[in-house]
Design goal:
single chain, Alpha-D-Glucose-1,6-Bisphosphate, Chain A, domain 4, 8 strands
């Protein structure tokens, strides 16, 4: 399953935005309001939970400065990745699009598509504010 967020404009250079997304502590400010848990578990990883959903642990898997940051699930039970694709607009402005890719069976995909779509749209919208 692949889902894309809208492409949003951020008032940061591509390098600064890449650094921002690679620092897992910053994801706390990007999370939706219905977050019930957020905890940095190591320098490159965090756990979060949204109300009514199981906890999800993510870690930084790859950083291609200044154009891409890839986060991936720590658990193999639900393999997925969240990629931030960054493009330069000007010296101090970038666009970013979030791409979610996960391997789910058909039933699971139907159940999670709505909540995940809403989640990545919220992350993207909150990125516009940083």
């Amino acid at each position: 399953m692949k889902l894309n967020s809208k492409k949003v404009t951020v008032q940061k250079s591509p390098a600064d935005l890449c650094d921002y997304l690679a620092d897992v502590k910053n994801f706390e400010t990007l999370m939706p309001e219905n977050i019930s848990k957020f905890e940095v578990i190591r320098e490159n990883a965090f756990v979060f939970a949204l109300k009514g959903m199981p906890e999800i642990a993510l870690e930084v898997k790859e950083v291609v400065k200044p154009n891409k940051v890839v986060l991936g699930a720590i658990s193999d039970k639900i393999p997925f990745s969240l990629t931030g694709n960054i493009e330069e607009v000007s010296e101090n402005t970038s666009t970013v699009e979030l791409l979610f890719e996960g391997e789910f069976n058909t039933m699971m995909a139907m159940m999670v598509k709505g909540p995940i779509s809403k989640f990545i749209e919220t992350l993207a919208s909150n990125l516009e504010q940083v």
